[in-house]
Amino acid sequence: MRIVSICPSNTEILYYLGLKEEVVGLDDHSDWPGEWQHLPRVGPDLTIDMEKVEALKPDLVVASLSVPGMEKNVEALIARRIPHIVLNPQRFTDIPRDIRLVGEATGRHLEAERLANHFVERSETIRQTALAAETTPKLYWEWWPNPIYTPGRDNWLTDVSEIAGAMNVFADFSVPNVKATREMVLERNPDHICVVWCGIELRRIKPAMITDRLEWQEMAAIRKKQVHLLEEGLYCRPSPRILDGLERLVSLIHPELAEKLPASRN
Question: What residue stretches are annotated with the Fe/B12 periplasmic-binding domain (predicted)?
Answer without folding.
Answer: 2-257
